Structure formats: structure tokens, C-alpha cells
């Protein structure tokens, strides 16, 4: 089981950051909440701060656990651990994705997400959430 952390980052306007996996990666062309694999002994908030600096050169503040979803991709299984986070500073510079968007929660269903993300997308789309 691969443990992966994902950040649901919002900006001052309440929009959420999503990013598209580039060609050559698993789930290429699909959208995700940015993050990455947990290193040994690493806490999720530390992993997310590290990954978002490496992949997008932004500073975030992960502040609350959002949910965990286990997904079987056939050849491998992942445990996707999502946290909510606030954008603190930085202009996004992509080094690992080929696109990003800031979107309102009710626009998330216009994007094709990696299958492991779908439970999170559905919760975010729910206005009672
Ligand atoms: N970061 C992130 N990864 C996700 C999400 N949803 C999802 O299925 N994944 C999967 C894709 C990858 O199999 C794995 C994360 O790996 P990664 O992208 O950090 O690792 P990597 O650079 O080594 O990529 P790869 O070799 O697996 O393609 O989790 C998500 O929302 N965010």
C-alpha cells in the first residue's frame, strides 16, 4: 500500500487548487489535489508543505484532516490522505504537472479526476459539507 498525501488548498477567494498529471506519470491527464508520497516517518502536514514547495513553489498551511480513501489501481493500492490547507504565499511555478486551475467547489465536477480522488470531490461538491 502506497501512502499518498493530497492537499485541498484554498485561496483568499475560497477557490480550490487542482492540478493535472502530466504525460509519463501514472494517471496522466487526470486532475488531482497536489501532494505526493509520504516518506518514512513523515507526518502528512510536513509532507504536504515539502511537496507543494517542490512541485509548485508555494507555501501552504495544512490545518485540518479532510479524509482518507483507499483505492486499488490494479497493480498497486494507494491510501490517499487529504488535508485542507491554506495558501500562504508564492506564485505557482509548475515542475511536476502540466496545468493547474483555481476553481470553485461547485465547478469540480467539470474535471476528470484520478479515481482515488472521487470521494473527496463528491464531498466538496456537497453544499451541506
Ligand atoms: N499527489 C496526488 N497523487 C494522487 C492523487 N490521486 C491519486 O490517485 N494519486 C496517485 C497518483 C500516483 O500513483 C500516486 C502519487 O504519486 P506521485 O505523483 O507523488 O509520485 P511520482 O511522482 O513517483 O509519480 P508516479 O511515478 O507514481 O507516476 O498517487 C492526488 O490527489 N494527489
From TrEMBL:
Secreted as UniProt keyword: no
Enzyme class: hydrolase
Record has Magnesium as a keyword: yes
Required cofactor names: Mg(2+)
Keywords of the record: DNA damage, DNA repair, DNA replication, Hydrolase, Magnesium, Metal-binding, Mutator protein
Catalytic activity of the protein: 8-oxo-dGTP + H2O = 8-oxo-dGMP + diphosphate + H(+)
Regions that span the bilayer: none
Range of residues in the leader sequence: none
Ranges where the Nudix hydrolase domain occurs: 1-126
EC number: 3.6.1.55
GO molecular function per UniProt: hydrolase activity
Highest taxon, organism lineage: Bacteria
InterPro entries: MutT-like, MutY_C, Nudix_hydrolase, NUDIX_hydrolase-like_dom_sf, NUDIX_hydrolase_dom
Pfam families hit by this protein: NUDIX_4 (PF14815)
Family per similarity comment: Belongs to the Nudix hydrolase family.
The protein's name: 8-oxo-dGTP diphosphatase
Organism field: Paenibacillus helianthi
Lineage: Bacteria, Bacillati, Bacillota, Bacilli, Bacillales
Amino acid at each position: 500500500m502506497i501512502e499518498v498525501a493530497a492537499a485541498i488548498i484554498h485561496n483568499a477567494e475560497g477557490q480550490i487548487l487542482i492540478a493535472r498529471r502530466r504525460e509519463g506519470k501514472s494517471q496522466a491527464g487526470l486532475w488531482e489535489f497536489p501532494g505526493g508520497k509520504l516518506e518514512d516517518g513523515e507526518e502528512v502536514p510536513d509532507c504536504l508543505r515539502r511537496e507543494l514547495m517542490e512541485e509548485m513553489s508555494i507555501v501552504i498551511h495544512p490545518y485540518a484532516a479532510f479524509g482518507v480513501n483507499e483505492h486499488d489501481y490494479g497493480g498497486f493500492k494507494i491510501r490517499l490522505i487529504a488535508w485542507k490547507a491554506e495558501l500562504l504565499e508564492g506564485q505557482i511555478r509548475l515542475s511536476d504537472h502540466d496545468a493547474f486551475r483555481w476553481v470553485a467547489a461547485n465547478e469540480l465536477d467539470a474535471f476528470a479526476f484520478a479515481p482515488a480522488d472521487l470521494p473527496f470531490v463528491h464531498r466538496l461538491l456537497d453544499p451541506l459539507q
